[in-house]
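Technical annex B. To support the medicinal chemistry partners, we prepared a structural model of the target in complex with iron/sulfur cluster, based solely on the information shown next.
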Amino acid sequence: MSSESSTVLSPPGRFAGGVHPPEHKELARHAAIEVLPPPAELALPLLMHTGAPCQPVVQPRAEVVYGALLADSDAFVSAPIHAPAAGVVQREGVATLPNARHVKTIPLKVGPHQMAAEELMADMFGGEWPEDGIADVAPEEIVKAVRAAGIVGQGGAAFPTHVKLARNPKKPVDTILVNGCECEPYLTADYRVMVEAPAPVISGARLAARAAGAATIIIAVEDNKPEAIEALRAAAAGDVKIMSVPTRYPMGGEKQTVRVATGRTIPTGGLPLDVGVVVINVETAAAIARAVWRKKPLTHRVVTVTGGGIAQPKNILAPIGCRYADLVAFCGGLKPEAGRAIAGGPMMGFALGDFNAPVTKGTSGLTVLTAEDVRRAAETPCVRCGRCVEACPLDLMPTRLALAARHKDWNLAKRHHLMACMECGCCAYVCPAAIPLVQLIRMGKVQMMKEVGK
Amino acid sequence: MSERKNDGPTPMERFLGGLIPENPVYRQILGICPSLAVTNTMEGALTMGVAALFVLLCSNILISLIRPLLKPHLRILVFTLTIATFVTIADRVLAAYLYDMSKQLGPYIPLIIVNCVIIARCEICASKQRVFTAAADALGQGLGFTLGLMTIATVREILGFGTWFGKWLGWRVIPATAPAHWSNWVIMILPPGAFLTLGLLLGVFNALTAKKEKAA
Amino acid sequence: MKRNYIQQAWLVIVLACLFGAALAAVHAGLGPRIAQNRLNDTLSQIPTLVEGAARGEPLEIGGRIVYRAVDGEGAAAGWVVPAGGQGFADRIELLIGLDREAAQITGLYILQQNETPGLGNRVTEPEWRARFAGQSALAPLTVVKGRAGGAGEVEAVTGATVSSQSVVGIVNEAVARFRRERPEGAP
Amino acid sequence: MNYLVSVLLLAISTALINNMVFHYFVGNCPFIGVSRRVDTAFGMGAAVTFVVTIAAALSWIMTYFVLAPGAPLTAAVLRLVRPGSTAVADLSILNYIVYIFVIAWAVQLVEMYVRKFFPPLYKSFGVFLPLITTNCVILFTCLEIMKHVPVAGAPVAEPWGLDRALIFAFFAGIGFLIAIVLMAGIREELEHCDVPAPLRGPGITMIIAGILALAFLGFTGMDTTLARRLAPKPPPASAETAARPAP
Amino acid sequence: MAENAVTPIAPAAPPPAAASARAAPAKPAPALSVAPGPHIASGALTTRRMMLDVILAALPLLAVSVYLFRQYAVFQIAISVIGALAAERFFGWMRRRPNTLGDLSAAVTGLILGLSLPASAPWYVGVIGAFAGIGFGKAVFGGLGQNIFNPAMVGRAFVMIAFPAALGASAYVAPTLGVDAVTQATPLTAFKMMGSVAALKPLFLGMTNGSIGETSALAALIGGAYLCWRGTAAWRIPAGGILALAILAGASDLTGGSPWTFAHHLSSGAFLFGAFFIATDPVSSPLTPKGQWIFGAGFGALVLLIRAFSGYPEGVMFSVLLMNSVAPLINRWTIPTPVGGPAPERK
Ligand SMILES: Cc1cc2nc3c(=O)[nH]c(=O)nc-3n(C[C@H](O)[C@H](O)[C@H](O)COP(=O)(O)O)c2cc1C
Ligand SMILES: Cc1cc2nc3c(=O)[nH]c(=O)nc-3n(C[C@H](O)[C@H](O)[C@H](O)COP(=O)(O)O)c2cc1C
Ligand SMILES: Cc1cc2nc3c(=O)[nH]c(=O)nc-3n(C[C@H](O)[C@H](O)[C@H](O)COP(=O)(O)O)c2cc1C
Ligand SMILES: Cc1cc2nc3c(=O)[nH]c(=O)nc-3n(C[C@H](O)[C@H](O)[C@H](O)CO)c2cc1C
Ligand code: SF4
Ligand code: SF4
Ligand code: SF4
Ligand code: SF4
Ligand code: FES
C-alpha cells in the first residue's frame, strides 16, 4: 500500500442544530491510559449488546484462563463473552445496568495470577500492526474473527459489529466511517486511544473496509482534538482519510457524522447501511485489528472516569465486568461536592443509582458531576421560544413532541414525527423553561408503541 | 299511563327548562348571532327577544296542531315555511309600529328564520307533543332566549352608554357627570365588546351552574 | 309515483296557500303604514329644516329628487336637498335645508349613518347639527378642531374628525351642485 | 381598470373590514361548532363560499325579476292576467320565504352537482352541505343583496348588478372562511392549554373572536383610503348617488 | 428534571468486605441524585432571565421616555406595571394557582403596555389596559406560555377601542401636560392628516411626539440588538419585519410613491419598538425558524398596509394581533421535515 502520509480533509457536509456545551475535556485529556488491576470479582452481564442474550458455556466453579469463552448464543445478532481475567466461574447472578435493565451475569472470582499491566497494554495497543497483507485476508475470515472475538460497537449502542461488516449484496457499502468524534463533553477515552494507539485504529479500519467491501475509509475527528488528528495523520497512509469535523454535539451521532463526513443523509428509521456507509467507533476499530491479527477477544475497554466530583480523573483500561465502584476507588474516590454519577457522558448517559453496576462493552465513561453542575431552575411552562426547535439536529419540534407525549395525543405526535427522535438531549439542554423534554419524549415513544403500535 | 310517558316532559318542565337548565343562549349555544348583534341596547335585546318569542310560539303551536299530518321527509320544509311566514309577519309589524327598532335591528329580524333555536324546538318538542306543551315550551325557550339577550345587553349598555333602557326609559346608571370618555366604553358597543361579553358571561354561567351541580 | 308525491305534499300546498293569504292580509293591512313610516323619515323633517315650511313637494332636478318646502298656503319657504356619501365607517345619508335663494343653510338632518356609537354617531346630535344652521351656502364650509367655529367654520365632534369632515364634505358638494342645477329664478 | 379597482375595494371591504363574523355577527353557530380542526373548518368555509355565491345569484335574479315592486316578470304576468292594469305588483312580502327556499334549493343543487362532477371536492366538504341550509351567512348575504337590487320605481342608494352581487357574496364567503380557519388554528393550538374549565369550548371561542374582532378593526377605513388613492379624479363618493326617498 | 429524586447513596458502597483489597474511599459519602438526562443544561437562559433581559433591553427606551415626558413617563409605566402585577396575582388567585409574579412575565407585559401608551393617558387607562391584557390576553388561555395573543397588545387594543378619546390622535397633543414634546401631533398623524413630512434625524433619535416608548428608533435598536445578541428574542422576526417594510416601502418610493420614504417608515412610530420588543414575544410568535421569518415579514407588511391605507396612522398593534392569530397556522404549515425524511409508516 502507498505509504505517503495522509492529509487532513475538511468535511463536505454540515448539520443544522446541535449545541456546544462546555467541553471539560481538560480534566482527563492528558491522563494517559492506565490499566485497572483486576478486582477480586468481575460480573459479566449475559446481555450487554443489542440482540439476543448469551447462554453460559461454562459451569460454575469451572476454572477459566484469560480470554476463555464464557457465554455464547446461536443467534446472528449477538456476541460471545470472554473472560477478562483468569479465575473461577461462580453461580449465575443478576445485576442492574445503569439503563435500569436487570440482566443475568456470570460472576468470575479473579485468580491470583494475572497478566501484568504493561503486558496487557502492549497486547492491546502496542507492537506492530501489519499494513500489508490485508488483501490476503478473506472478508468472511474477518467477519468470523470479529464474531469470535465478541466485538460489539463501543460507541454506545453496543451493536454486534460482525453484523455490520457482513456483506449484503442488496446494500453495498462503499465507505467505512471511523467515528472519532467523541462529542460528549468530559469524555476522553476515544481521544486517548487515537493519540496513544493510532496504528490499531487504522489497521482495524482497513480490515473493516476489506470485510464490508468499502473502497473509502474516513476517520472523522472533532477539531477540538488536534493531537489526535495529527497522530492519526502521521500514522495513516493515503488510503485512509482523516477528516477534521467541527466540534458540535452530537457530531458523533451517526446520522450527523455520516452527513458531515459524506454529505449523505440517512433516511429516518434507516441505517448508515442504507446510504452505503458503515460507522464504527475508534475503539471498535482497534478491537477488530486485535481480533484479526492477534486473535484476541474483546475483554477490556478504555473508560474515562472524570468530572468535578472525582478526585483524580483518569482514562482507564478496565476489564469488562468490573464494577463502577472499582473505577471510583482507582481514581481516589469522590469529592464531597459530587452530586451525580453518570454512566457515560452528561448528555446521553444514565445516572447511576449505585456503584455496583458492572462496566459493559458499551461503557465509555463514568462522569461524576458536582451538585452545582446539575442544579437546574424549576420547571416552568413552555414559553414557545423555539430554542429547542433550533437546537434539534434532526429538525424536529421537541416542544410539540413533549406536549404530545404529556397529553398522549398520538395524532399530534405523528404529525411531528415523534419516532424520529434520537434522544440526543440538545433540546432539553437549551430549554429555558427546564422542561424534561427528552424524558417526556422517551416515555411518549414507549407509550405510543404500546398503544398504537400493535 | 304509557301515553303520558310517550308524551315526554310536562308543560311545566318544558317551560322551566327553557329558562335556565336548557337556556338557548347559555346552555345550547343557539341563536348566538342575534345575541351578539342586537344586544348593545336593552331595547334591541327586548325587541328581538319578543319577536323571536312570537315566532317561536306561533310556529310551535301550529306545528303541534298539524303534527299528525307531518311526513318525515317534508318535515323540515314545513318548519321552514311556517317560520319564514311568521318571521315576515313579525318583521312587518315591527316596521309598522316600531319603525326605529325595525331600522336598528335591520336584517337580524329576518335572520330569525334560520335561528336554530326555533327549528330545534319544532323538531324536539312541537312535532312530538301536544299543543299546550308545545306552547309552554315555546314560552320557556322564548323567555330564556330573551333573558339571555337581556343579560348581555345589560352589561353592554351600562358599560357602553352608562344607561339601562336609555332610549325608552332614559335610566342612567352611571351619572352623566362622569367624564364621557371614562364612563362610555366604546368597545362594549362595538363587535369586540359583544364577543368578549358573551364569552365572559358564558364562563360565569358555567361556573355558577357547575357550583350548583356540585352542591346538589 | 308522481301522484303519490303530490298526495304527500298536499299539506305543504295547503299551508302555502294559507300562509300566502295571511301574508297578503298583513301586506294589505300594514303596507301603507310602513310606506308612510319610510316617507315620514324624510318628510317629517322638512318643517324642522326650513323655517315656516309645513310640507315638502318632491321635484326632480338633474335626475335627483329634491323637495320644495312650502308653507301652509303652498308658498315656497325653501329647499330640502337629500345627499349622501362615505363617512368613517359607512355611507352617511342626510338632508340639507336651504332658504329660498339657496344662499343660506337653514338646517341639517342625518337620515342614516353607521358611525361608531359614542363617537362618529354624535354627528346626529341636535347640538352639533345646529352648527350648520345659518351658515352661508355660497362658499364651502371648513372643519376646525378644538375651538368654536366662526362664520364658514364647523367645529368637529371631538374624537370624530373624520365623520365631521365627511358630513361637511357631503354638504358642500350637494349645496354647490344644487346651486348650479336648480331651476333659474325659482322658487 | 376602474372596474377592477371597485372589485378590489368590494373584496377588501367584504372579506376583511366588514367581515361576516367579526363585523356582522353572522354564522356564529358553525363558527363555534365546526372550528375545532383546521381541515374541517376549511371544508365548512369552502362549502359556505360555494353555496353563498350560488344562492346570491339566484336570489338576485328572483328579486330583480319577480319580487321587487314593479319587477319585469311579475309585471308582465300581471299585464297578461289583467290587461291594462296600472297597479304596481309588489311581491316583496314574499322575499324571506323565497330566499330560504332558494337557499335550500341551491344547497341541493350544489350537492348534486359537486357529487357528480367533483367527487374529491365532495369528499372534502360535502358533509357540510346539508348543515348550510340554516346558515345565516347565506341568508344574511341574500338580505344584504336585497337592499341593493335596483328597482325601477324607487332608486336605491348603491344599486348592484348581478356581477357585484356575486362578488359580494363570494367575498362574504371568503371572509367567513378566513375567520373560521383562523379560529380553528387557534383552537387546535389551545387543545392542550390550561383554559379555565367554565370557559372551555364556546366561552373561549367567543373571547378569541372578540380579540380577533379587535385586530380586524385595524383594517377600518382601508377601502375608503384605497378608493381615494386609486381613483385619479376626486372620488364620486359624496353626493353623487344621493338618496332618493320615495316621494 | 423537576422531581430530582435525591437518593443519598454511599459511593463505592464497600464491596463485600473481603472482596476488594483496595479500600473504598474513606471520605464521607456525598448525596448523589438520580435524574434522566441530559444532566447538564445551558443555563444561559431561564424563563426569568429572558424576562429580565427584556427589562434590561428596555432601559434605553426608558431613559429617552423619561427625558422627553418626565414624570408622566414614570407615572404611566409604574401604573401599568403595578396594574399588570395586580392582575396576574388576581387571576392567579381566582384560579387558585401559585404566585407567578416571580417569573417577571407580568412585569414585562406591564412594561410594554406602559411604553405603548401616550403620556397624557389618564391613570385608569393603564389599569384597565393591564387587567384586560392579562385577563383576556393571558389568564383565559391558562397563563404564561399558553396565550395566543400578545397580552400587552390585547390590553392596548382594548383601551384604545374603549376610550378612543384618551388614546386617539388628539390624546397625543396635550399641551396641558407642560411637556415640550407633546404639543404637536405625532409625526405619523401629522403626515396622515396634513401630509407634513418629519425630518429623519429627530425621528431616528426620538425627539418627537408619540407613545412614551416609541419615539426613539435608536434606543429601540440598541435594546433590540441586546435582545437578539442574548438570544432572548428570535432575531428572524425583527429581521423579517424590517426587510418586508423596507422592501415594500422602498418599492413604493421607487415608483414615486410618497414623501414618507422607507427610512421614515422604519424610524417613525412604534415600528422598531414593535419589531424588537413586541412581535418577538416568544409565546405568541411561531416556533420554527421558517415560521419566524414568515411571521416577521407578515408583521412588517401589515404595518405598512395599515399605515398607508387604513384609518389609523399606525399599525403596529393591529399587525401584532393579526399575526398572532395566524401564528398557529404558521406553526402548522412550517413543521419541518425531519432530517432523513418523514418517519416511515410502521408495518
Ligand atoms: C447523540 C449521539 C452521540 C453520539 N456520539 C458518539 C461519539 O461521540 N462517538 C462515537 O463513537 N459514537 C457516538 N455515538 C454512537 C454513534 O451514533 C454510532 O452508533 C457509533 O459511532 C457506531 O460505532 P460502533 O458501532 O462502533 O459503536 C453517538 C450516538 C448518538 C445518538
Ligand atoms: C374604535 C374607534 C372608532 C372610531 N370611530 C370613529 C368615527 O366613527 N368617526 C370618526 O370620525 N373617528 C372615529 N375614530 C377615530 C379616528 O381613528 C381618528 O383618530 C379620528 O377621526 C381623529 O379625530 P380627532 O382628531 O378628533 O381625534 C375611531 C377610533 C376608534 C379607535
Ligand atoms: C407598541 C405600539 C403600538 C401601537 N400600535 C398602534 C396601532 O396599531 N394603531 C394606532 O393607531 N396607533 C398605534 N400606536 C400609537 C401610534 O404609534 C402613535 O402614537 C399614533 O400616531 C397615535 O395616533 P392615533 O392614536 O390617532 O392612532 C402604537 C404605539 C405603540 C407604542
Ligand atoms: C423577547 C420578549 C418579548 C416580549 N414581549 C412581550 C410583549 O410584547 N407583550 C407582553 O405582554 N409580554 C411580552 N413578553 C413577556 C411574556 O412573553 C408574555 O407576558 C407572555 O406572552 C405571557 O404568557 C416578552 C418576553 C420576551 C422574552
Ligand atoms: S432529543 Fe430528540 S427532539 Fe430533542 S434535540 Fe435530540 S433528536 Fe431532537
Ligand atoms: S426550548 Fe423549552 S420553552 Fe422553548 S419552546 Fe422548547 S420546550 Fe418550550
Ligand atoms: S342562525 Fe344558524 S349560525 Fe346562527 S345561531 Fe342559529 S344555527 Fe347557528
Ligand atoms: S349543527 Fe351546525 S349550525 Fe347547528 S349547532 Fe351544530 S354547528 Fe351550529
Ligand atoms: S347564526 Fe344564529 S342568528 Fe345568525
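Notes passed to the chemistry partners:
The two ends of chain B are 30 Å apart (CA to CA).
Residues 52 and 112 of chain B are 7 Å apart (CA to CA).
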